[in-house]
């Protein structure tokens, strides 16, 4: 067996595939620069560290279950939704997350709430925060099934350990009493150690109607809004303003 094959075999055995992938490049560089053994080995370790870091980000992004479109570098700042580019950049610094604040993104459908929330979630993942994106329907199903299925219970336990939870389209539809109580108990359990990004098209005053319980709505909002920045988005639907049809692509 050739030396290269032996090295690759050992790398697979010891699970240091980043070294194996970077070996040809490091060897070529070391031969060109006449590097010493210590420099050569250090460069191999850098490749392994980078490889593991990139894989960890990929793993966390998959676990976060973010929407496919979540790159705020592509944010269309020409969209007239009332949010300035300076404000977006400020939010992306994640100081609010470091300091334990929540964000509530309010506004009509199509004004960029979900895209902004997912983008901030992606930034948080890249910086090492345990982040999970859930629609109101997703969370409702987890709360309903956690005592019945192991999958739902496992998902519920992951949420309990999250640094950041994104709840998308909360209060879009009326909520059953049992679900409303479960939602309150869930948020009450973690709100002091977990940050939230909430997207909603309902004002806080309308939550009582969706929950059919003013006292419960007040208690829920009291916890979510205690340390919270409310960002109001306005304007027309970006999707409708920029909609495409099949026939546009045929021209």
Automatic annotation (TrEMBL):
Q: Which Pfam families does the record cross-reference, listed alphabetically? A: IstB_IS21
| Single Gene Ontology MF annotation | ATP binding
GO biological process terms held by the UniProt record: DNA replication
Per UniProt, residues of the AAA+ ATPase domain are 99-232
Which SMART domains does the record cross-reference, listed alphabetically? AAA
For this UniProt record, give its keywords in alphabetical order, as a comma-separated list: ATP-binding, Nucleotide-binding
The record ties this protein, via Gene3D superfamilies, to: P-loop containing nucleotide triphosphate hydrolases
Q: Member of which family?
A: Belongs to the IS21/IS1162 putative ATP-binding protein family.
NCBIfam families named in the record? IS21_help_AAA (NF038214)
The name of this protein is IstB domain-containing protein ATP-binding protein
Native source species: Nitritalea halalkaliphila LW7
